[in-house]
Amino acid sequence: MKTDSTDEKALLKGLALNDRKSVETIYKLFYNMVQTLIINNNGSTDDARDIFQETVIVLYEKAKSGSFELNCQLKTYVYSVSRRLWLKKLQQQQKFLPAVNGLEDTVPVDEEVEGHSQRNSEFQMMEKALLHLGEPCRSLIEAFYLQKRSMTDIAGHFGYTNADNAKNQKYKCLMRLRKLFFAEFKNNNV
């Protein structure tokens, strides 16, 4: 299936708006290409699914930013991002030890992939820090930041006398979480 630049722009716009049909179209157009790339380079179908999912996330983040300007075919961009993500994964698994060379023939996507990988790594470290935080801190932080509950609601739920006491406890929990996160960060970057 061939796409023109108008169709590609519409796909990117749909992707940025979480349009299911756009995501399905991207999948139909490019998944087999990515799967072939991964399988031909020491990967499995599960690896291909993972890499394609990460590629779609990178593409989504770029499309959502509003400042993304596609200056090649979408197929080329998807291939380049997928290839870069796969090579990075192979390096991490030490299946492919030499430096990644020969990417000049593809679209330069290093920054997007590096940014995505960095955010992914930081989210994993934050998740570990949250797991080590313990109760009631973890639940309090999740209630405020993830569930978007008010401090008054949190105070009632956790048994604090008022919203100010809950806010004070949240601050103490955040300081503990921060300490755990940076300890994890230091361990990963040693």
From TrEMBL:
RNA polymerase sigma-70 region domain residues are: 30-95
Name the SUPFAM superfamilies for this protein.
Sigma2 domain of RNA polymerase sigma factors, Sigma3 and sigma4 domains of RNA polymerase sigma factors
Question: In the record, which residues are listed under signal peptide?
Answer: none
Q: Say yes or no: keyword Cell cycle present.
A: no
As one GO molecular function, the record gives: DNA binding
The domain of life for this entry's organism is Bacteria
Q: Looking at the Swiss-Prot or TrEMBL record, what is one Pfam family this protein matches?
A: Sigma70_r2
For this UniProt record, give its keywords in alphabetical order, as a comma-separated list.
Answer: DNA-binding, Sigma factor, Transcription, Transcription regulation
Q: Which GO terms describe its biological process?
A: DNA-templated transcription initiation
The record's family statement is: Belongs to the sigma-70 factor family. ECF subfamily.
Q: What is this protein called?
A: Sigma-70 family RNA polymerase sigma factor
Query: Which species is the source of this protein?
Result: Niastella caeni
